[in-house]
């Protein structure tokens, strides 16, 4: 079975009735773009740019970032690249950029909140992204968006940078990983080009369970019906505005998760490289209608273990 998965990894994930799911990769380093294509990815659904900033003595300069993004664009050879702006804070800290001590870092100045307060980090990154976008298909995605104000403020900064550089507009999307963003998804959907659901944080914030907490680990499950209902709500809001929804959290790379997400109407699944071949193979064994009934069933269940039992 492994062997056939491996042989068919370059083929798209087309269900038995012809429905196609886009399978893309999560990466963190420039060299991983080529590896993602090699693993069968049809693009990059999440570039975690914080990895370009970690394990260094200073932040990468605009030119260094431009070179890294351009290396990925070249390796992708026309396949899409979604660049998430710096998502630092929470569990990720930069040794050369001390953050104020916080009692609750995951509820603190994290992700877009940090970038909006630190133009020295945000502006060079946006400049590098817009410059690189002239070399191939790039989309920009903001992490940890909790309010419309976050989104408007981020867009305002990005648009200013874009105009200074004279770059063409690119698609702009947000991570859906905070419950408030789901509850306001109808409003966001009118303005964004796409949503990408971060089930790791969405699960953490919905269940109020630290995603890193060893004692809670087995209960922090992105297939919990509470999370699935939020995903359903997000897809419905996006569909009304003809916007597409991806998932880039761990649920996308889980074969049962991939089926349920497809049934909920998610059209792009972004996952770590080792999951790609198996998820594609699993999707090919079923139809859109079957994933829809599986998803509808999952939405009626009461616990994550009942959802897991559908496998
Ligand atoms: C997520 O929260 O699901 C996500 C994809 O982002 P990260 O894991 O980098 O927080
Ligand atoms: Mg996240």
Describe this structure in words.
The chain starts with a helix and ends with a helix. The longest helix has 18 residues, at 148-165. An 8-stranded parallel beta barrel has the order 2-3-4-5-6-7-8-9, surrounded by 6 helices. Helix 2 links the parallel strand 2 and strand 3 (44-48). 44% of the residues are buried. It has 311 residues and is of the alpha/beta class. Helices cover 46% and strands 14% of the residues. It is globular, with a radius of gyration of 19 Å. Helix 12 (255-264) crosses helix 14. The protein has helices spanning 2-7, 32-39, 50-53, 62-76, 112-117, 119-132, 148-165, 179-183, 185-191, 199-207, 225-240, 255-264, 276-283, 288-300, 304-308; strands at residues 13-14, 20-27, 44-48, 81-84, 138-142, 171-176, 194-197, 244-247, 268-271. The structure holds phosphoenolpyruvate and magnesium ion. The site of magnesium ion has 5 residues, from helix 10.
